[in-house]
Amino acid sequence: MTTTTLAAPPRAATAAPALALREITKTYDGAHTVLDRVALDVPAGALIAVMGAPGSGKSTLVHCAAGLDDPTGGEVRIADRRITGLGEAKRTLLRQGRVGFVFQSYNLLPSLTVEENLALPLRLAGAEADRDWLRHLAERTGVDRFLQRRPGDLAAVHQQRAAVARAFASRPDLVVADEPTGALDPADGAAILDLLRELVDEWAPGLLMVTRDPAAASRAHAVFALEGARLRPVLASAR
Ligand SMILES: Nc1ncnc2c1ncn2[C@@H]1O[C@H](COP(=O)(O)OP(=O)(O)OP(=O)(O)O)[C@@H](O)[C@H]1O
Question: What does the entry list under GO cellular component (predicted)?
Fold first, then answer.
C-alpha cells in the first residue's frame, strides 16, 4: 500500500491559529468564576499543555475551547471561525470534522468495532470513510491488529490508541485531549504522549492538552498553568 499521499493530509494554508481563545470567561451559577479572561493561541502543528490542580477548570477550558460549551464572555475561534454565540446546533455543525477529542476514559462506543469507531467522526460529518486512510491511521497509531475487535476486548493503552486514531480521523484543525494519560500506568501514558506529539508533528493540527501528568510537559511546545481562574505561561520548549 502506498501511504505517501496519506501521510500528509491536505490542510489549507492559513496564518490563523488552530485555536484562539480571546479573553474567555466562564462563570457557573452566576457566581463561580472558573475561567477569568483566559487568552491562548494554539498554532497549527503545536502541542500546548495546560496543567492545573483538580477543580482548577481544565475540563471547563477544554469544553469551551472545543465548542462543547459556550463561555460566559470572550470569543473562541477554531481555524479562524468563531464558534462562540452560535447556539448549540450551529456550534455542533462547526465542530464536526474540525475538532478531534481524546478523553481520559477513551469514550469509544463499546458496541462498535475499532474500525467502526475510527470511521464514526467521518460519518457524523457526512464524509466518506476512506478505507485506505483509516487503514493508514490504524497502522500509524498501532491498532491495525484490532480493527475488527470491540474496544472492551482491548488493553487500556490500545483503547486509548484507538481513541487517538479516532481523534485524528477527520484530519481536524484542532485536537483536544482531557487527561489522556489519567487512566494509564506511567509507561503506557508515556507511549500515548509520544504518539500525540508525533501525530502533531506529522499532521499539523493544533493540540490542546489539559492534564495533571507532569510527563506531559516534556512533549509540549509550551506549557501553561491554570490557577485561580487565570492562565499563565510556565515554559516554552525548543523542541
Ligand atoms: N456544569 C457545571 N456547573 C457548575 N459548576 C461546575 C460545572 N462544571 C464544573 N463546575 C465547577 O467548576 C470547577 C472546575 O471544574 P473542572 O471540571 O473544569 O476542573 P478540572 O480542573 O477539570 O478538575 P479535575 O482535574 O478534578 O477533573 C469545579 O469547582 C467544578 O465543581
Answer: plasma membrane
